[in-house]
Amino acid sequence: ARRAELREQVLVAAGLWPETERPPLQPTFVGPPILRDGYSIERVWFETRPGVVLGGNLYRPYPLVPGRQYPAVLTPHGHAERGRLASDDQFDAPGRCINLARFGFVVFTYDMVGYNDTGLGLTHRNFALGQTVPALYGIGVFGLQTYNSLRGLDFLSSLPEVDPARIGVTGESGGGTQTFIVCAVDDRPAVAAPVNMISLHMAGGCVCENSPGLRVDSDNVQISALHSPKPQLMVAATGDWTTNTVTVEGPYAMEAWGLQGAADQLEWVIYDAPHNYNLDSRQAVYAFFGRHLLGNPNAADFREQPFLIEPDEDLLVFPDHQPPPRQADEATIIARWRELAQPDFGRLAELGIGLRHALAVEPVAPSAALISGTAPHLVLGRDGTGERVEATWQPPSQPGAAAVVLLGQDADLARSLAASGRGVLSVAPFTYEPARDRYEQFYTCYNRTDLACRVQD
Q: How many C-beta neighbours within 10 Å does residue 393 have?
């Protein structure tokens, strides 16, 4: 029950509830493949939805064995300046793709919104930020990126040489967030390896990781546990916010895996390093994927070998940084998304679920209601919540007459309703003191707004 509830919450926060039909993918491969010893690299782009272009590289074992199906890996990147092209001692996205392909995986690495080839012309950290209309529909870079990742899974699954039952997902930092989010809302990934991200004291530093409503009454460990009981490796570092994984986040996550009799499917490792996806981290992931997706438990078989990084211009889909004509601007993407998000009143049950999660409200059982005070001045609450709702009650003048719940202190309206014989329960509107800044520290990602609290009251 908690899994279903939390998955709905994540999808609503991403603006992906209820999900609409996905348009067919029409991948475009650019130029001939790059052929190297044991692997090949191709440049590819496709529209995830009309006007949203996703670009990336497809790495494959070379040569492919005819008729053979290979396991696959989807790998989003973090906030390194060069994104999926970043290659240094701490982060090496091309290096991990090359080695995974050599080990026998088909790998798709792609850009976050506004990086390299994806969403050219869009600003990653400011997409739809601060606009009222997008906020009403859950429109933002978190949802756009999550949707792109789901379409990346669609792309990998569509390749004839890929075994759709053996797909892993791994990424670091912001890509680590995308890793556990995608594995939380989609059942296709068989194995997850979020790197340097699952933490209880720093859940993400970008709008692409902090959509309103995402973590109300929850946290990254719980969200990542939606992937349980399937295999997951948590890779941590002493020099960033994952430093407590061994003592805090790991044991906490183990409660979910252990509850399902799958304690042997969750692992964690930690290295003495700054924020990274370095050689140690990569080799841990190679061995984990090799064991669970290739059936080879020998970690020594997954030691990284020296590799050559191709020039950027040979990896970029659009090396001149000019987007294809079908890439829409921000205003057009928002308008189309809003159109998709218009209510379908033939799906009232789904709309009700979406609205309940958007407001973070819960139905109140009469048996849970607490009433104290002396009429007409009452205090309402719910058992176990600590809520305190001030209200004024004026009973109806006639037995069996209607009663009205009035939100706010409108004395004239209350008198008019009472004069008509109705009972009136005037509920004082919830207010923060002092008022909260909903944009500071991604406040609404973790907390209810005053509107949500008023609806609950």
A: 17
Distance of CA 75 to the CA centre of its chain: 14
Amino acid identity for residue 394 in this structure: Q
Q: Per residue in 185-198, is it b (16+ CB within 10 Å) or e — as a string?
A: bbebbbbbbbbbbb
State the Cα torsion 355-360-365-368 to the nearest 10°.
-170
The HSE-up count of residue 41 (CA atoms within 13 Å, CB side) is 24
Q: How many CB atoms lie within 10 A of CB 202?
A: 11
Judge contact between 151 and 119, C-beta under 8 A: no
Residue 432 has pLDDT above 90, yes or no: no
DSSP class of 247: I
Among 278, 275, 88, 272, CA closest to 199: 275
Q: What is the pLDDT of residue 207?
A: 93
d(CA 172, CA 323): 26
Structural contact between residues 58 and 45, judged by C-beta atoms closer than 8 angstroms: no
b/e code 346-375 from CB counts within 10 Å (16+ = b): eeeeeeebbebbbbbbeeeeeeeeeeeeee
How far is residue 179's CA from residue 53's CA, in Å, rounded to a whole number? 20
Give the whole-angstrom CA distance, residue 34 versus residue 434: 60
Contacts of residue 396, Cβ cutoff 8 Å, sequence gap at least 6:
402, 403, 421, 422, 423
Residues 118 and 55: their CA atoms lie apart, in Å, by: 5
Residues 326-382: tens digit of each pLDDT: 899 999 999 999 988 888 888 889 999 999 999 999 989 999 999 999 989 999 999
Q: How much is the pLDDT for 340?
A: 86
DSSP string for 357-424: HHHT-----GGGEEEEEETTEEEEEETTT---EEEEEE--SSTT--EEEEES--HHHHHHHHHTT-EE
Neighbours of 398 (CB within 10 A): 10
Cα 107 to the center of its chain, rounded Å: 21
What's the rounded Cα separation, in Å, for the pair 361 and 5?
12
Residue 188: pLDDT band by 50, 70, 90 thresholds?
very high
Q: Which helix (H) or strand (E) holds 388?
A: none
Q: What pLDDT, on a 0 to 100 scale, did the predictor assign at position 33?
A: 98
Q: What kind and span of H or E run contains 396?
A: none
Extract the tokens encoding 190.
């068989």
Q: How far apart are CA 265 and CA 392, in angstroms?
A: 55
The distance in angstroms from the start CA to the end CA of the chain is 24
For tokens 């039909």, the residue is 21
DSSP code at position 237: E
Strands 389-394 and 423-427: antiparallel
How many helical (H) and strand (E) elements, i.e. helices and strands, does the chain have? 14, 14
Rounded to whole angstroms, how far apart are CA atoms 67 and 165? 16
What 8-state DSSP symbol labels residue 22?
P
Q: What's 228's DSSP letter?
A: T
